[in-house]
Amino acid sequence: MAARNFRAWSPKEDESDAAVREAVTLGLRNAAISGTVVAVPTLVGCRVLPWAKANLNYTAQALIISAACIAGFFITADKAILRNARQNTIGKIDRST
Fold this sequence. Notes:
Layout: H1 13-48, H2 50-55, H3 58-87, H4 90-93
């Protein structure tokens, strides 16, 4: 049975694909930066601080670092998509009528 494609193509489909690609690129870049910024103090703290050494196992460290990466990605991607949506509002597209 063939799959049906119910996707509705917008007139500015190429522009929206470029906007999504830009949002993903910016999100990945920010995720890498935020992951690095959080990983260094987390890993150093787990080696130096007695409380962190006793209470933060490898899973907890990985969760802390991955939460920062995920938050950095989604916040940045959301901001980029909203910025592009603001630029493409109906009032700015069709002011001639």
